[in-house]
């Protein structure tokens, strides 16, 4: 059932709150579910949100950075309330997805075999209606 939800996804945002350690602790579970059910080439960005609430912070920047590095994820911290790095996060993941698709297209194009220009294919026009009439008038077959 979950695979249908993730099917065809090119990118995913894995978001936790920097003011709630539990949301950070649960990242491993969410990342496992995501990887088990999504395409293998999906681009994943880890986002630490609510950096505007610095006084209540429970998860430090280096913890997010380390998790991202260990799991081969892009990483950024944001504040949705103040719109800090929100647009940049989306532009960043979209750029990564675009670059991956571009590389994939190039590698696919390189693997395509072309028909040699010295070989020719000759097409002839045939009158199938007359051929059927000739077959039908001559006997059993």
UniProtKB/TrEMBL annotation:
It comes from the Eukaryota. Pfam families: Ras (PF00071). GO terms for molecular function: GTP binding; GTPase activity. This is Ras-related protein rab11. It comes from Anaeramoeba flamelloides.
């Amino acid at each position: 059932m979950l695979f249908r939800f993730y099917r065809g996804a090119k990118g995913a945002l894995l978001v936790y709150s920097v003011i709630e350690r539990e949301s950070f602790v649960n990242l491993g579970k969410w990342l496992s579910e995501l990887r088990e059910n999504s395409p293998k080439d999906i681009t994943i960005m880890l986002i630490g949100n609510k950096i505007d609430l610095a006084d209540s912070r429970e998860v430090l920047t280096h913890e997010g950075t380390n998790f991202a590095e260990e799991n081969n994820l892009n990483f950024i911290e944001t504040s949705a309330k103040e719109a800090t790095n929100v647009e940049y996060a989306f532009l960043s993941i979209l750029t990564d997805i675009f670059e991956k698709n571009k590389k994939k297209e190039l590698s696919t194009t390189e693997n395509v075999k072309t028909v040699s220009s010295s070989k020719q294919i000759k097409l002839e026009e045939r009158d199938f209606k007359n051929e059927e009439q000739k077959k039908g008038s001559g006997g059993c077959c």
